[in-house]
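We emphasize that the prediction below concerns an isolated chain of 125 residues; any contacts that depend on oligomerization or on bound cofactors are therefore not represented. The input was used exactly as deposited, without trimming of termini.
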Amino acid sequence: MKLLTIDDSKTMRRIIKSVGATLGYEVLEAEHGLHALEILRSSSDEIGLIMLDWNMPGMNGLKVLQIIKASDAWKHIPVMMVTTESEKGHIIQAIKCGAIQYVTKPFAPEALASKIMESLGMGEI
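Result of the prediction step, given as a token string:
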């Protein structure tokens, strides 16, 4: 199983990739929503969790989330928002659209690891 991180920040993708690797997962990276959709088209059967930023150029994370959850091929993949957007309205909107977790940046790597494990149904680490 692989994880997919979608974030326009190369630094944030690197941090998330490091946390995923520590947990034993390969992490695929997309720098924006359209790239993420390309990865999903070719590798969705391998992806067990998507970590999605809200603020990205071209297509924001909420739109990407809506596309994922509207797709019969992808809607089963859990999505965790990992974003600087901490406004209560954004959190509610993301959860209503199908996100199972909402992590705000900055975060401690241990906290992200715990949320990844919870999202994968493995409880806290």
